[in-house]
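Replication restart protein PriA: structure tokens wanted.
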Amino acid sequence: MTLALDFISDQQTPTADRVTLFVDVILPLPLPRLYTYRVPFELNDRVVIGGRVIVQFGAKKTLSCIVAAVHEQAPKEYQAKYILEFIDDAPVVTQPQLKLFRWMAEYYLCTLGEVINAALPSALKLSSESRIQLHPAFERDTNEYPMTSQEDKILDALGALEDAKSLTFTEVGDLLGVASFHKVIKSLMHKEAIFLFEHTADKYSPKVLKKVRLHGRHLTESNLERLFEDLTSKPKQLDVLMKYLQRVPVYQDEHANHRGLEKAYLTSSPHLSPSAVNTLIKNGILEQFDQIVSRFPMDENPIAHIQFELSESQTAARDEIMTYFGEKDIVLLHGVTGSGKTEIYIDLIRQALDGGGQVLYLLPEIALTTQIVTRLLRVFGSRLGIYHSKFSDNERVEVWNGVLSGRFQVVIGVRSAVFLPFDNLGLLIVDEEHESSYKQYEPAPRYNAREVALMMGNFQGAKVLLGSATPAVETYYQAKQGRYGLVTLSKRFGEAGMPDIELIDTRKQREQKTMHNHFSADLLGEIERKLGAKEQVILFQNRRGYAPVVACQDCGWIPKCNNCAVSLSYHKHSHELRCHYCGYHESMVTKCPACGSRAVKTVGFGTEKIEDDLKIMLPQASVQRMDLDTTRAKNAYQQIISDFEKQVTNVLVGTQMVTKGLDFANVSLVGIINADSIIHYPDFRAHERAYQMFVQVSGRAGRKGKKGKVLIQTSDPTQVIFDKVIRNDYLEFYNYEIMQRQEHGYPPFMRIIKMTVKHMEQGLCEQAAIALTGELVDRLGRAAVLGPEAPYIFRIRNFYIQEITIKLDRAHTVLKHAKLMITEAMDAVKDQKEFRQARLVPDVDPM
Ligand code: ADP
Ligand code: ZN
Ligand code: ZN
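Answer:
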């Protein structure tokens, strides 16, 4: 314990009473319980619940953890070690958060450590392996904060580094010759002098924007006049200067010049000479500088009051929501696509902020685009925090701290934003509440952000608004039961009507030989007509790649993944066979390895083939594809959307990505290439999902004035679901679906917990699954336990898979007891030696 003693000697805050305090801490690890550490009594005053402390864990490792409780009970089973260092004087995790995290661990059958690990951005999780680097924007001579000698020492060391431009915490400790250095690091982070990261891959590489501004010495009126005189003989440079002053009102706003202008704006301007720009920089008239920009660019000159008047029906809906909030905590806003739900949200957010509460606005990942962020920034400006999973860790820490400090009163974010340290929420909005991307599959906690948001609202006394054009059956049921308020908007905003939806019988067209590849003559003709009228088209195909299967025509051989029980998909662009489950890929085969035949053909089709065929059939059209393969690069997604928005492209072909929340004014046709593959899915939610997908993708058509058209290709137009989609009658769909759910005992009538057993060896996987089933049946009864069963894809990434489905009554008490039993059953299996290597994964409310 030399480390701790060291530390105590340089801190003097002795307190009068000499009680011995202990803290229970949450380590950010999947440990089943909390650990107790002892507080050096000189530091009794410093203990804060929700603050971080550094402790030793294991032989060598030190790491930060969160204080969950303070008490005077020494642990019985082990000798408590001392806390090594206190990092925070104020909580980084709030009390309401701790309560929520406990609930999540219990509800989703995981450990508190797993929740904390998922919740905290890694820069808040310190360990002896953490590393620091200089903040790229930090300039030592111009920075405004005074540095302590310890801080200077660290900056010196970082500045002197050549290649490996980072220091580990261990090196920092050695450098300063003390064991307590976390406060120094925290302070340097606070002063934006350094960045912190855990894995080399997380090292921060900022996006830098090249900007220019007028050099300070020209800023007085007389100097500027002289400058104009000097430049009269150099008209090209004068043009650049004029353009700059046009865009940057240096006299009206003293900060405007400091912020400057993007250099590219001047160099790429068609009427200006790029070399003149560079000459001005070379002669010190313009000054070039770098600005680190975030992924969502802030509007530099926010137009203060771009605000829409709510329409009559929007106002009525808003008022209805407010009235409901008087008596209920949760309201469902069921508004058709394009009904203008966003404007209603904005209005409600404003009211909640006026009332002094915080607001969390959740969106599915893919819907959090610059489109929506820009709208909100215009209204809420710097009070708005943005939380996106593509953000770097440091950007996330910034939002985290911004929420803690009160800088961000409203946050728009993806599912993981539910982890942010709110403590005074007034309103939560869950847009597109039916979206399955609110569910986290891997790793634990396997939570659904919608359900977590409901619980946050409950804990913090906040109101929750769920919004969707196609509400989840479970949600609508709660509304029908009167547990949630229900507000309906059945008309689109403005002139736009709902699109006409037509079915195309591909079997018939195939018989009549009017199919061209996968396009019916009707669809192809309609696409041509729309393009002729300079309108845009979206085509939806549920599969990416060129073809999902490749097969030998002579012997039937099919290439399969080595690690998973799936056939490999053909990707033409890269000329590869790829596994969509593990990423395995190899070159496309031209000769069958089984029989030597060259008749290896593709079967079925994906987005890539649709794109290809279309380019051949309509060479004049500009086609762009949006799927996982084309959006891997950082800004690719935004680029595709922006090209389509600007009508650089006429046709957008894509997977589910094109169905989500996009708002394009000029799209008048949506085509669903193959509806059958969406409907026939072995899951009780298949119909619901298909319905949502059809309605959402249809919702992209005809949003501004023009009447939209949707063409759905199917080999069987008589299927029930089409009827509901065509008539745009959610209620009819719901009534049909809820009956099915009741009849077969599915949610919302029953609760489902899915147990997955994974093992590298098939036999042991099956045996473990059988053993677990036995333990579960013993505790929950035969009727509640279905399986075990191998899923359709029974092997992924070399792990064999078995599934057990547990169906439970909805009652809270039943559920609580059942979860205890499930935990017991899992322990009973894990205690058996032969199943050591088995992974048992519970998933509560699977989707
Ligand atoms: P939803 O989210 O319900 O599908 P949106 O919020 O995207 O619908 O609104 C559809 C379109 O109507 C958007 O282009 C939006 O800008 C426009 N809009 C909605 N409400 C108003 C309003 N009150 N004034 C002007 N335009 C509006
Ligand atoms: Zn063959
Ligand atoms: Zn695979």
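The longest strand covers residues 799-809. The first helix runs from residue 2 to 9.

Cheers.
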